[in-house]
Amino acid sequence: DGKRRGRRGLRSPDAWQRDYHERRIAGVCVSLAENLEVSVSAVRLGFIVLFLIHGGPQGAWGENWSYRWNAQVFAGAGYVVVMPNPRGSTGYGQRFTDEINADWGGKVFDDIIAVVDHVSSLPYIDSSKMVAGGGSYGGYMIDWMLGHTQRFKAFVSHAGVFDLASMAMATDELWFPIWEFHGMPWENPEVYTRWSPSKFISDFFTPTLVITGERDFRVPYTQSLQLFTALQMQRVPSRLIVFPDEGHWILKPQNSVLWYHEFIGWINRWIREDHQPQTNAPESVTAPAETAKP
Length: 294
Description:
Elements: E1 16-18, E2 24-31, E3 37-42, E4 48-53, H1 71-76, E5 79-82, H2 94-98, H3 107-120, E6 131-135, H4 137-146, E7 154-158, H5 164-168, H6 175-180, H7 189-194, E8 208-213, H8 222-233, E9 238-243, H9 253-271, E10 284-286
Parallel strand pairs: 4-5, 4-6, 6-7, 7-8, 8-9, 9-10
Antiparallel strand pairs: 1-2, 2-3
Protein backbone atom coordinates (compact mmCIF):
# COMPACT_ATOMS: atom_id res chain seq x y z
CA ASP A 1 0.00 0.00 0.00
CA GLY A 2 1.47 3.33 -1.04
CA LYS A 3 0.18 4.97 2.11
CA ARG A 4 2.32 2.86 4.40
CA ARG A 5 5.81 3.99 5.30
CA GLY A 6 8.47 1.58 6.56
CA ARG A 7 10.89 2.40 9.36
CA ARG A 8 13.97 1.57 7.30
CA GLY A 9 16.60 4.29 7.47
CA LEU A 10 14.90 6.13 10.33
CA ARG A 11 17.63 7.66 12.45
CA SER A 12 16.52 11.07 13.75
CA PRO A 13 14.24 11.81 16.73
CA ASP A 14 12.67 14.42 14.46
CA ALA A 15 11.84 11.87 11.74
CA TRP A 16 8.16 11.27 11.07
CA GLN A 17 6.18 8.70 9.17
CA ARG A 18 2.49 8.23 8.51
CA ASP A 19 0.29 5.31 9.43
CA TYR A 20 -2.33 3.65 7.25
CA HIS A 21 -4.79 6.50 7.94
CA GLU A 22 -2.19 9.20 7.13
CA ARG A 23 -1.80 10.22 10.78
CA ARG A 24 1.67 11.38 11.75
CA ILE A 25 3.68 8.95 13.89
CA ALA A 26 6.98 9.81 15.52
CA GLY A 27 9.73 7.28 14.87
CA VAL A 28 13.20 7.11 16.37
CA CYS A 29 16.20 4.79 16.54
CA VAL A 30 18.10 5.01 19.82
CA SER A 31 21.85 4.48 19.42
CA LEU A 32 23.47 2.08 21.88
CA ALA A 33 26.96 1.83 23.27
CA GLU A 34 27.77 -1.13 21.02
CA ASN A 35 26.70 0.69 17.85
CA LEU A 36 23.46 -1.22 17.67
CA GLU A 37 20.10 0.46 17.49
CA VAL A 38 16.68 0.00 19.06
CA SER A 39 13.67 1.13 17.06
CA VAL A 40 10.78 2.88 18.77
CA SER A 41 7.39 4.08 17.62
CA ALA A 42 5.37 6.68 19.53
CA VAL A 43 1.85 5.90 18.36
CA ARG A 44 0.22 9.05 19.62
CA LEU A 45 1.45 12.31 21.09
CA GLY A 46 0.33 12.87 24.63
CA PHE A 47 1.54 13.55 28.12
CA ILE A 48 1.94 10.30 30.04
CA VAL A 49 3.97 7.51 28.47
CA LEU A 50 3.21 3.78 28.50
CA PHE A 51 6.04 1.44 27.55
CA LEU A 52 4.93 -1.92 26.14
CA ILE A 53 7.48 -4.76 26.28
CA HIS A 54 6.90 -7.53 23.74
CA GLY A 55 7.09 -11.25 24.40
CA GLY A 56 8.93 -14.00 22.64
CA PRO A 57 11.50 -12.94 23.53
CA GLN A 58 12.43 -13.61 19.89
CA GLY A 59 9.68 -11.42 18.48
CA ALA A 60 9.15 -7.77 17.57
CA TRP A 61 6.60 -5.01 17.53
CA GLY A 62 5.76 -4.20 13.93
CA GLU A 63 3.22 -2.63 11.64
CA ASN A 64 0.45 -5.10 12.29
CA TRP A 65 -2.91 -5.25 14.04
CA SER A 66 -4.21 -7.41 16.84
CA TYR A 67 -6.84 -7.01 19.49
CA ARG A 68 -4.21 -8.25 21.96
CA TRP A 69 -1.87 -5.49 23.15
CA ASN A 70 -3.50 -3.06 20.74
CA ALA A 71 -1.54 0.18 20.92
CA GLN A 72 -4.45 2.27 19.65
CA VAL A 73 -6.59 1.25 22.63
CA PHE A 74 -3.96 2.63 25.00
CA ALA A 75 -3.39 5.71 22.84
CA GLY A 76 -7.14 6.24 22.84
CA ALA A 77 -6.99 6.25 26.64
CA GLY A 78 -4.61 9.22 26.43
CA TYR A 79 -1.17 7.61 26.64
CA VAL A 80 1.90 8.04 24.49
CA VAL A 81 2.61 4.40 23.57
CA VAL A 82 6.27 3.45 23.17
CA MET A 83 7.04 -0.04 21.87
CA PRO A 84 10.79 -0.78 21.90
CA ASN A 85 12.41 -3.66 20.01
CA PRO A 86 15.49 -4.32 22.18
CA ARG A 87 18.14 -7.02 21.82
CA GLY A 88 16.50 -10.39 21.34
CA SER A 89 14.01 -8.95 18.87
CA THR A 90 13.68 -10.30 15.36
CA GLY A 91 14.13 -8.32 12.16
CA TYR A 92 17.55 -6.78 12.86
CA GLY A 93 19.82 -9.72 12.05
CA GLN A 94 20.64 -12.93 13.88
CA ARG A 95 23.36 -11.38 16.05
CA PHE A 96 20.85 -8.86 17.42
CA THR A 97 18.38 -11.66 18.18
CA ASP A 98 20.96 -13.91 19.84
CA GLU A 99 22.20 -11.15 22.18
CA ILE A 100 19.50 -12.17 24.67
CA ASN A 101 20.63 -15.78 25.01
CA ALA A 102 21.55 -16.54 28.67
CA ASP A 103 21.32 -12.77 29.26
CA TRP A 104 17.61 -12.16 29.83
CA GLY A 105 17.94 -9.23 32.23
CA GLY A 106 21.19 -7.79 30.84
CA LYS A 107 21.50 -6.00 27.51
CA VAL A 108 17.72 -6.03 26.96
CA PHE A 109 17.21 -4.07 30.16
CA ASP A 110 19.97 -1.66 29.12
CA ASP A 111 18.29 -1.13 25.75
CA ILE A 112 14.92 -0.43 27.33
CA ILE A 113 16.42 2.04 29.79
CA ALA A 114 18.18 3.77 26.87
CA VAL A 115 14.76 4.21 25.26
CA VAL A 116 13.31 5.43 28.58
CA ASP A 117 16.11 7.99 28.86
CA HIS A 118 15.45 9.30 25.37
CA VAL A 119 11.67 9.42 25.72
CA SER A 120 11.99 11.13 29.11
CA SER A 121 13.84 13.99 27.41
CA LEU A 122 11.01 14.73 24.96
CA PRO A 123 9.21 18.02 25.68
CA TYR A 124 5.72 16.49 25.68
CA ILE A 125 6.52 13.70 28.18
CA ASP A 126 6.15 13.92 31.95
CA SER A 127 9.02 11.68 33.09
CA SER A 128 7.54 11.55 36.59
CA LYS A 129 4.49 9.66 35.31
CA MET A 130 5.77 6.73 33.30
CA VAL A 131 4.12 3.29 33.37
CA ALA A 132 4.99 -0.02 31.70
CA GLY A 133 3.45 -3.37 30.90
CA GLY A 134 4.38 -6.60 29.17
CA GLY A 135 3.34 -10.19 28.62
CA SER A 136 5.24 -13.50 28.62
CA TYR A 137 8.88 -12.45 28.20
CA GLY A 138 7.56 -8.89 28.42
CA GLY A 139 6.05 -9.89 31.77
CA TYR A 140 9.44 -11.29 32.76
CA MET A 141 11.02 -7.92 31.96
CA ILE A 142 8.39 -6.14 34.07
CA ASP A 143 9.22 -8.52 36.94
CA TRP A 144 12.92 -7.83 36.39
CA MET A 145 12.35 -4.06 36.30
CA LEU A 146 10.51 -4.33 39.60
CA GLY A 147 13.80 -5.19 41.26
CA HIS A 148 16.05 -2.91 39.21
CA THR A 149 14.41 0.49 38.71
CA GLN A 150 12.00 2.83 40.48
CA ARG A 151 11.42 5.18 37.56
CA PHE A 152 7.86 3.99 36.92
CA LYS A 153 4.61 4.81 38.69
CA ALA A 154 3.01 1.44 37.95
CA PHE A 155 3.57 -1.89 36.20
CA VAL A 156 1.36 -4.53 34.59
CA SER A 157 2.81 -8.07 34.41
CA HIS A 158 0.82 -10.49 32.24
CA ALA A 159 1.83 -14.18 32.27
CA GLY A 160 5.35 -13.18 33.24
CA VAL A 161 8.21 -15.52 34.07
CA PHE A 162 9.07 -14.85 37.72
CA ASP A 163 11.21 -17.73 38.94
CA LEU A 164 13.34 -19.26 36.20
CA ALA A 165 14.01 -22.59 37.91
CA SER A 166 10.38 -23.42 38.74
CA MET A 167 9.33 -22.18 35.30
CA ALA A 168 11.77 -24.59 33.62
CA MET A 169 10.38 -27.48 35.66
CA ALA A 170 6.74 -26.76 34.77
CA THR A 171 6.57 -25.34 31.22
CA ASP A 172 5.23 -27.42 28.33
CA GLU A 173 8.15 -26.30 26.13
CA LEU A 174 11.26 -27.84 27.65
CA TRP A 175 13.39 -26.91 24.64
CA PHE A 176 12.89 -23.29 25.57
CA PRO A 177 14.79 -23.11 28.91
CA ILE A 178 17.44 -25.51 27.63
CA TRP A 179 18.17 -23.14 24.73
CA GLU A 180 17.75 -19.86 26.59
CA PHE A 181 19.71 -20.77 29.73
CA HIS A 182 22.11 -23.38 28.34
CA GLY A 183 20.62 -26.30 30.22
CA MET A 184 18.21 -27.12 33.02
CA PRO A 185 18.53 -25.56 36.51
CA TRP A 186 20.77 -28.30 37.90
CA GLU A 187 23.03 -28.09 34.84
CA ASN A 188 23.57 -24.33 34.82
CA PRO A 189 22.37 -22.97 38.17
CA GLU A 190 24.42 -19.77 37.92
CA VAL A 191 22.46 -18.47 34.93
CA TYR A 192 19.11 -19.33 36.53
CA THR A 193 20.08 -17.56 39.74
CA ARG A 194 21.55 -14.50 38.05
CA TRP A 195 18.55 -13.70 35.86
CA SER A 196 15.63 -14.76 38.04
CA PRO A 197 13.44 -11.82 39.20
CA SER A 198 12.53 -13.86 42.28
CA LYS A 199 16.03 -13.22 43.64
CA PHE A 200 15.39 -9.46 43.92
CA ILE A 201 12.11 -9.38 45.85
CA SER A 202 13.52 -7.14 48.58
CA ASP A 203 13.87 -4.37 45.96
CA PHE A 204 10.22 -4.47 44.83
CA PHE A 205 8.43 -1.15 45.40
CA THR A 206 6.36 -0.27 42.29
CA PRO A 207 2.57 -0.88 42.32
CA THR A 208 1.91 -3.86 40.06
CA LEU A 209 -1.12 -5.49 38.45
CA VAL A 210 -0.59 -9.23 37.90
CA ILE A 211 -2.70 -11.02 35.26
CA THR A 212 -2.66 -14.71 34.32
CA GLY A 213 -4.68 -17.46 32.66
CA GLU A 214 -5.22 -20.63 34.65
CA ARG A 215 -4.89 -22.75 31.50
CA ASP A 216 -1.46 -21.37 30.64
CA PHE A 217 0.97 -24.24 30.13
CA ARG A 218 3.72 -22.18 28.50
CA VAL A 219 4.25 -19.90 31.52
CA PRO A 220 2.22 -21.72 34.19
CA TYR A 221 -0.06 -19.43 36.17
CA THR A 222 1.77 -20.29 39.38
CA GLN A 223 4.52 -17.92 38.19
CA SER A 224 2.05 -15.08 38.58
CA LEU A 225 0.86 -16.41 41.93
CA GLN A 226 4.47 -16.36 43.17
CA LEU A 227 4.89 -12.78 41.98
CA PHE A 228 1.69 -11.65 43.68
CA THR A 229 2.68 -13.37 46.92
CA ALA A 230 6.07 -11.64 46.82
CA LEU A 231 4.46 -8.23 46.22
CA GLN A 232 1.98 -8.75 49.05
CA MET A 233 4.66 -9.93 51.47
CA GLN A 234 6.70 -6.82 50.60
CA ARG A 235 3.59 -4.68 51.14
CA VAL A 236 3.76 -3.40 47.57
CA PRO A 237 0.36 -2.23 46.25
CA SER A 238 -0.73 -5.05 43.97
CA ARG A 239 -3.72 -6.75 42.39
CA LEU A 240 -4.08 -10.26 40.95
CA ILE A 241 -6.53 -11.24 38.20
CA VAL A 242 -6.88 -14.90 37.20
CA PHE A 243 -8.82 -15.93 34.08
CA PRO A 244 -9.85 -19.56 34.74
CA ASP A 245 -10.84 -20.19 31.11
CA GLU A 246 -7.83 -18.62 29.36
CA GLY A 247 -4.30 -19.75 28.59
CA HIS A 248 -1.19 -17.78 27.72
CA TRP A 249 -3.23 -15.25 25.73
CA ILE A 250 -6.57 -13.68 26.60
CA LEU A 251 -8.65 -14.59 23.54
CA LYS A 252 -12.35 -14.56 24.40
CA PRO A 253 -14.00 -11.25 23.50
CA GLN A 254 -15.58 -10.42 26.85
CA ASN A 255 -12.42 -11.47 28.68
CA SER A 256 -10.44 -9.14 26.41
CA VAL A 257 -12.74 -6.25 27.30
CA LEU A 258 -12.19 -6.97 30.99
CA TRP A 259 -8.42 -7.25 30.43
CA TYR A 260 -8.22 -3.76 28.89
CA HIS A 261 -10.54 -2.32 31.52
CA GLU A 262 -8.38 -3.65 34.36
CA PHE A 263 -5.07 -2.74 32.66
CA ILE A 264 -6.03 0.86 31.91
CA GLY A 265 -7.83 1.26 35.23
CA TRP A 266 -4.71 0.18 37.10
CA ILE A 267 -2.27 2.53 35.38
CA ASN A 268 -4.79 5.39 35.55
CA ARG A 269 -5.05 4.83 39.26
CA TRP A 270 -1.35 5.45 39.87
CA ILE A 271 -0.75 8.42 37.59
CA ARG A 272 -3.53 10.52 39.08
CA GLU A 273 -2.31 13.37 41.25
CA ASP A 274 -4.97 12.63 43.86
CA HIS A 275 -4.59 8.85 44.20
CA GLN A 276 -4.86 7.60 47.76
CA PRO A 277 -2.24 5.28 49.26
CA GLN A 278 -3.39 1.67 49.05
CA THR A 279 -3.60 -0.53 52.10
CA ASN A 280 -1.98 -3.96 52.00
CA ALA A 281 -5.33 -5.75 51.89
CA PRO A 282 -5.00 -8.50 49.24
CA GLU A 283 -6.61 -7.63 45.92
CA SER A 284 -7.18 -10.80 43.97
CA VAL A 285 -9.92 -11.45 41.45
CA THR A 286 -10.96 -14.59 39.63
CA ALA A 287 -12.58 -13.49 36.39
CA PRO A 288 -15.82 -15.36 35.69
CA ALA A 289 -15.52 -17.83 32.85
CA GLU A 290 -17.09 -16.42 29.71
CA THR A 291 -20.30 -18.19 28.78
CA ALA A 292 -20.43 -19.29 25.17
CA LYS A 293 -23.43 -17.78 23.37
CA PRO A 294 -25.36 -19.60 20.66
